[in-house]
Amino acid sequence: MPTEVEEQTLTLEEVLAGLKEMHRLILWNDDYNTFDHVIHCMMKYLDYTESQAEKIAWKVHNEGKCAVLEGSFTEMEIYRKILQQEGLTVSVD
C-alpha cells in the first residue's frame, strides 16, 4: 500500500527567509490590547519579569513596536502564533 506524501511548495522568499540565521519577533502597538494584557503575555509566554514586561509595553506604546525575542524562523513562528492567539499584533522580521 503506497504512502501518500503531502507536497509543500515554497517561494524563493520563504526559502531565503528560512536560511537567515536570526529572526526577530516584533510586537506592534494596537488600539485594543491593554497594558495589563501585554504585560501578562510577555511574562507568561516569554518569561520576562514584570519590570521587563512593563518596559516592553511602554516601548510599544511610545514607539509603535518592539523586538521582543530573537531566534530561528521556526521558533519565532511558534511564538508569533501563540501571541496572535492571545490577540496581540506580532510579526516575524
Structural overview:
This protein has about 90 residues and is an alpha+beta fold. It has 4 helices and 3 strands; from the N terminus they run αβααβαβ. It has helices at about 10-20, 35-45, 50-65, 75-85, and strands at about 25-30, 65-70, 90. The chain has a 3-stranded antiparallel β-sheet. The radius of gyration is 16 Å and the shape is elongated. The mean pLDDT is about 90.
Please state the oligomeric state of the protein chains shown: single chain
The 3D shape can be described as elongated
Strand content: 15-25%
Instruction: Tell me the number of strands.
Output: 3
Query: In angstroms, what is the radius of gyration?
Result: 16 Å
How many individual helices? 4
Largest sheet composition: 3 strands, antiparallel
SSE sequence, one letter per element: HEHHEHE
Chain-averaged pLDDT: 90
